[in-house]
């Protein structure tokens, strides 16, 4: 772990002159170097993410060879967005009362924001607070249980129903016969059952044109078959599906994936970062006053709080970006938490 | 005494794998359908605990994954974080008829034989990932972007089967104290850093009142020398892909076969190591004691094995991945906005 840390700090130091000239606070955009620094920070903080190099022929020379894009695999997606939208006001109020003073509305509640600006305005409060709420999203009970019983047309296979294909298996009492059930059913599910859910592989690439990160999704159904684009849209907040989310060719793989179009990412990121900086400046001033009061009269025994600590650093960019993305894909439970 | 039942692997093929297979078929193998070596990976199982009482806990299946790096050799194939290598053989047929008529039992037996040979020769002691060998038969319909496939995860049959002593599988937190659990986690992290990925999925543990030690299978005799069995000091551990409380994952089957044949063990403590990814939390690990009446050594004759994956209907049969939506240029034109 230590070596990772050393490496990480090494990289950060190496890049720091670049970061000082950064325009990310003014524009919301980041440079490829900053993307890599932010990616390193994400991988360090959330080890389920890692760097990949992708197809050799599609390598971008402004990124490091082994750090072309980020990926996290097998991320569970418990329910469809539609199911979340069945709920009434409950979900929202729950979130509001969790911490009395600031009403931060998670779009998890199904009350999806109508446009991207609204999301930015929702994401206020300091980082810890956002964390706290996103770590414990209040998810509501699935009301429509009947949906589970509708047989899935996709379950009818092509080749599968044909001949036995000549495989012989011995009697095997030591194999657990799968008692798994397909997800979305929450009634008295005993804890020793495997609940099958959709999973996603989530990618973050660097979009050179928009100078922002870009998120890509590849989904698998409960039986690990790739999802169709129609199915993927079920997991995207309805206000985004087919508008800001499109199916396009992955820049580093020979494959088409659903992607959240980055045309407004910079604006939103700028807003979120501004809000976070404002909040933490307030906190900083409070701390500074406390410090001055506490140290009045006696000589310094503690270092005064530094103003830099109160500002969002560029290497935190992707963590903030992921929180922003979680409003577009509210049901995909990827790791955007800061563990330490 | 209850029967020890193992959770079978569920195959999880990443879509880029099929793409890589297609391009290799076209550019490299052409009509050559000789089996090729591939590299898979698996991670430890864990349960996502529900945030409130309404929801059920989410228990993920024990996945054996194949990514686009599956065709690289072991050293250059990059292992996703917090996962373990597995090695397999892919047989890609040229036609759907060949796929149907292929003698799959023979392929399965061949892989079983390799596992047995690795146990007898001791190769599996140095590189225990060899215990997780698998077989994959495929037919790639390149025009329709459809892939028919069938995984087999051979496990040697033990007769009579292993049973769980006292009928108890306990959570690690019920048996060990917090300091011990943390010591185990840290020592295992160090063990993983110090050893190649081919041997970190299976390991030895010695728990005394002073410390928790982790060892490599190849140091068995030295590591367990003057071990006090009465005190339950001797323990084997493995990275467990299962997330079920009472059932360890498939890799333990061949591991137990190795332990029994190599070191004449008929009763042993087992630690099912389960880590919540990225959370430095191993509190979902399970501990059990297993034993068997089987004293028969794996003879020259190949023992019986099981482990063909069932399809989505729960029957023995192949599966199909349809990637036309994501790879077919015609269909892509329809969905793009």
Radius of gyration of chain B: 21 Å
Helix content of chain A: 25-40%
β-strand amount of chain A: 5-15%
- Helix fraction of chain B, binned, reads 25-40%
Order of helices and strands of chain A: HHHEEHHHHEEEEHEEHH
Structural class of chain B: alpha+beta
Low-confidence stretches of chain B: none
Number of helical runs of chain B?
A: 10
The major beta sheet of chain B can be summarized as: 7 strands, mixed
Mean pLDDT across every amino acid position of chain B: 88
Molecular structure report:
The complex is a heterodimer of chains A (340) and B (337). Chain A is α+β, with helices and mostly antiparallel strands and 340 residues long. The two termini of chain A are 13 Å apart. Chain A is globular. Chain A has one domain. In chain A, 33% of the residues lie in helices and 13% in strands. Chain B is globular. The mean pLDDT of chain B is 88. The chains are: A alpha+beta (340), B alpha+beta (337). At the A-B interface, β2, β4 and β7 of A face β2, α1, β4, β5 and α2 of B. Chain A: Belongs to the ATG3 family. Chain A: It is found in: Cytoplasm.
Question: What is this structure's SSE topology?
Answer:
The complex is a heterodimer of chains A (340) and B (337).
Chain A: H1 2-20, H2 24-27, H3 32-45, E1 50-52, E2 69-77, H4 81-85, H5 90-98, H6 116-122, H7 127-135, E3 181-182, E4 195-196, E5 198-207, E6 212-220, H8 229-233, E7 245-249, E8 256-260, H9 265-295, H10 317-325
Parallel strand pairs in A: 3-4
Antiparallel strand pairs in A: 1-2, 2-5, 5-6, 6-8, 7-8
Helix pairs in contact in A: 1-3, 6-9, 9-10
Chain B: E1 2-3, E2 10-13, H1 15-29, E3 36-43, E4 47-48, E5 58-59, E6 63-66, E7 83-93, H2 96-101, H3 104-121, H4 123-126, E8 134-141, E9 146-156, E10 163-171, H5 172-175, H6 178-194, E11 202-207, E12 212-215, H7 220-223, E13 234-239, H8 251-263, E14 267-273, E15 286-291, E16 305-308, E17 319-322, H9 324-327, H10 329-335
Parallel strand pairs in B: 2-6, 7-8, 13-14
Antiparallel strand pairs in B: 1-10, 3-7, 4-5, 8-9, 9-16, 9-17, 10-15, 11-12, 11-13, 14-15
GO molecular function, one term (chain A): Atg8-family ligase activity
Family (chain A): Belongs to the ATG3 family.
Protein name (chain A): Autophagy-related protein 3
């Amino acid at each position: 772990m230590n070596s990772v840390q050393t490496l990480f700090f090494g990289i950060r130091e190496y890049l720091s002159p670049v970061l000082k000239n950064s325009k990310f606070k003014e524009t919301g955009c980041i440079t490829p170097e900053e993307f890599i620094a932010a990616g390193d920070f994400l991988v360090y903080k959330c080890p389920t993410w890692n760097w990949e190099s992708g197809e050799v022929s599609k390598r971008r020379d402004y990124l490091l060879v082994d750090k072309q894009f980020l990926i996290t695999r097998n991320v569970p997606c418990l329910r469809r967005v539609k199911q979340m939208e069945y709920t009434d006001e409950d979900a929202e109020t729950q979130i509001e009362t969790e911490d009395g003073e600031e009403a931060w509305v998670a779009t998890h509640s199904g009350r999806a924001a109508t446009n991207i600006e609204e999301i930015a305005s929702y994401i206020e409060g300091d980082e810890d607070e956002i964390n706290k709420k996103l770590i414990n999203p209040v998810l509501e009970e699935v009301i429509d249980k009947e949906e589970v019983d509708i047989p899935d047309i996709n379950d009818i296979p092509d080749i599968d129903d044909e001949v036995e294909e000549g495989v012989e298996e011995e009697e095997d009492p030591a194999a657990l016969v799968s008692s798994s059930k397909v997800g979305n059913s929450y009634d008295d599910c005993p804890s020793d059952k495997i609940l099958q859910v959709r999973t996603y592989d989530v990618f973050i690439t660097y979009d050179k044109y928009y100078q922002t990160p870009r998120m890509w999704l590849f989904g698998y159904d409960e039986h690990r078959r790739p999802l169709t684009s129609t199915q993927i849209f079920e997991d995207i907040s309805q206000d985004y599906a087919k508008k800001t989310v499109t199916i396009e060719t992955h820049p580093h793989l020979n494959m088409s994936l659903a992607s959240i179009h980055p045309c407004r990412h910079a604006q939103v990121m700028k807003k979120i970062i501004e809000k976070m900086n404002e909040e933490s400046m307030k906190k900083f001033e409070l701390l500074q006053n406390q410090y001055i009061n506490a140290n009045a009269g006696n000589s310094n025994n503690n270092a005064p709080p530094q103003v830099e600590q109160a500002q969002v650093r560029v290497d935190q960019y992707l963590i903030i970006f992921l929180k922003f993305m979680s409003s577009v894909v509210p049901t995909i439970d990827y790791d955007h938490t800061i563990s330490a | 005494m209850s029967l020890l039942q193992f959770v079978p692997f569920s195959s999880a093929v990443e879509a880029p794998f099929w793409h890589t297979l297609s391009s290799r078929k076209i550019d490299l193998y052409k009509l050559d359908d000789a089996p090729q070596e591939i590299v898979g990976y698996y991670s430890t199982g864990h349960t996502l605990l529900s945030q409130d009482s309404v929801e059920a806990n989410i228990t993920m299946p024990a996945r054996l994954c194949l990514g686009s790096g599956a065709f690289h050799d072991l050293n250059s194939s990059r292992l996703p974080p917090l996962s373990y290598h597995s090695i397999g053989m892919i047989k890609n047929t040229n036609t759907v008829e060949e796929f149907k008529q292929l003698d799959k039992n023979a392929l399965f037996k061949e892989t079983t034989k390799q596992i047995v040979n690795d146990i007898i020769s001791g190769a599996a002691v140095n590189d225990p990932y060899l215990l997780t060998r698998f077989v994959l038969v495929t037919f790639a319909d390149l025009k329709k972007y459809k892939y028919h496939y069938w995984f087999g995860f051979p496990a040697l049959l033990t007769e009579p089967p292993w049973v769980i002593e006292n009928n108890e599988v306990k959570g690690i937190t019920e048996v060990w104290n917090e300091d011990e659990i943390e010591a185990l986690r840290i020592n295992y992290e160090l063990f993983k850093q110090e050893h190649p990925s081919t041997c970190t999925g299976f390991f030895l543990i010695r728990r005394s009142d002073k410390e928790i030690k982790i060892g490599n299978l190849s140091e068995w005799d030295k590591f367990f020398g003057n071990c006090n069995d009465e005190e339950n000091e001797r323990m084997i551990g493995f990275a467990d892909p299962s997330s079920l409380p009472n059932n360890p994952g498939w890799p333990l089957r061949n591991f137990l076969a190795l332990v029994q044949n190599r070191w004449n063990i008929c009763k042993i403590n087992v630690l099912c190591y389960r880590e919540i990814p990225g959370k430095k939390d191993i509190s979902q690990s399970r501990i059990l004691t297993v034993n068997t009446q089987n004293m028969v050594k794996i003879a020259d004759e190949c023992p019986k094995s099981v482990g063909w994956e069932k399809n989505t209907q729960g029957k023995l049969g192949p599966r199909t991945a349809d990637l036309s939506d994501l790879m077919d240029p015609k269909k892509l034109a329809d969905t793009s906005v």
